[in-house]
Amino acid sequence: MPRAHKTYDAIPKLPIEYLQFQVDEKSEPILLQIFQEKGTDRELICCDLCYQHLPLTSKRSLTTLTKHRGKGECTKLIDRKEKEATREEAAAEAEKVFAELFPTPGKSQSESNPHEDSPNVVEIPVEAKVEPCDPSDMRQPDPATVENDTRSPEFESGVVQPAQDPFDNISELRALVEKANSERDEGLATIRTLERWYRRSCEKEKKAEGAREVAERDLYRLRVEITHEYQKRISAEAGVSNHRADVERLQRDLAVQKSAYERAMEMKAKEIKELEENLASIEDKNMLFCQLRVDAEVDKLEEVLASEHLKDSDQKVRLMLEESHRGLRQIVRECKAARPPRSNIIQRILPITKREISVDEEEEEGPTKGAKAARVA
Asked: Of the residues 73, 95, 119, which one is the last residue of a structural domain?
């Protein structure tokens, strides 16, 4: 009986690795997957016949698997040897029965029955002539055994009659021969039936063995496929966990960037508000300054128009001054009605003011010179 095999809680070793194993030189090498004991770093190898997990040496040699198969620890090899022994015993028993029923022709007459080879030969018994014995020479019987003496009276008389021949009748002999032949035919038929049954059982056993081997190969292939799927699933789960960690990190970074953006927007809003306030104050100051200048220019123009020396001056100059006066008044009204856009108002004020001031200076110089010349004349 093989020793009790230790069981291991084995899981596929990741990444998946294989070792090449060859039973002998004639057999084809096979690939065996390396497993790992759960909870430890011990490497295991799986027997390709009985699927038992065996410890793998540190140098990854398959000595353990070779010993497992060589010492008869593999349950598949044990079952196979038992079946082969049972098959050999059945074949030997069938050969023995066949030899008993049909002996070979080369055997001697001492080994075989002469009646089987020549069943029609009749053995004629020889008459035995026995001379009578002297009664005085015979020993007296033991009185204690006289009652148990079963000898016939012919023996006491000393005369033995010849035995009766059992084969006196040829018909009886033929009947016996036919009976023996029929029994032999029945035995042959029985042996042929047993041989057919034995062949059928052998064929069925071979088919079952082939189907079992195919099922074992399919099972091994399924184990490998399941291991590959398990590895893919573990890799996918690892990838998902990595993606989840990346998403969480990106969410944290986004939250930090969002808070920084909100703080920056608050600071920008404060700066914009301050700039708007400063701009409003500057625009108010500029508007007030422009309005004061416009008012001053308007007053100046009114004084010039109201002066006496312009009453008799050229009508063209007066019309131009009145138009400038009306334009300035319109600008003042626009500034008072709607300040924004202030830049447009300022852009409209400055050129007009510069132009009108230059025109007013020329007109003032011109009439003054003319008046002075008239006075001098």
From this structure: 73
Does any domain span residue 251? no
The C-alpha angle with vertex 56 and arms to 54 and 62, in degrees rounded to 5, equals 90
Total domain count, the chain: 2
d(Cα 354, Cα 344) in Å, to the nearest integer? Answer: 16
Total Cβ atoms within 10 A of residue 328: 20
Are 353 and 294 in contact by the 8 Å Cβ rule? The answer is: yes
Please identify, among 73, 108, 123, the residue that sits at the C-terminal boundary of a domain.
73
- Asked whether residue 123 is domain-assigned, the answer is no
Residue 148 lies in a domain: no
Residue 222 lies in a domain: no
Enclosing domain of residue 53: 10-73
Question: Quick one: angle between helices 315-337 and 170-306, nearest 10?
Answer: 140
Please give the chain's pLDDT, 377 residues, in tens.
445 456 777 778 777 777 777 777 777 777 888 888 888 888 888 887 777 888 887 777 777 777 777 766 777 666 676 777 777 777 777 777 777 766 665 544 444 444 444 444 444 444 444 444 454 544 444 444 444 455 555 445 544 454 445 545 677 878 888 888 888 888 888 888 888 888 888 888 888 988 888 888 888 888 888 888 888 888 888 888 888 999 999 999 999 999 999 999 999 888 888 888 887 787 777 777 777 777 777 777 777 666 655 555 566 676 777 777 777 777 777 666 655 555 554 555 555 544 554 555 555 555 554 444 444 43
Question: From CA 200, how far away is CA 212, in angstroms rounded?
Answer: 18
Q: Which residue(s) pair with 35 in the sheet?
A: 12, 44
Query: Rounded to whole angstroms, how far apart are CA atoms 279 and 346?
Result: 13
Whole-structure pTM value: 0.28
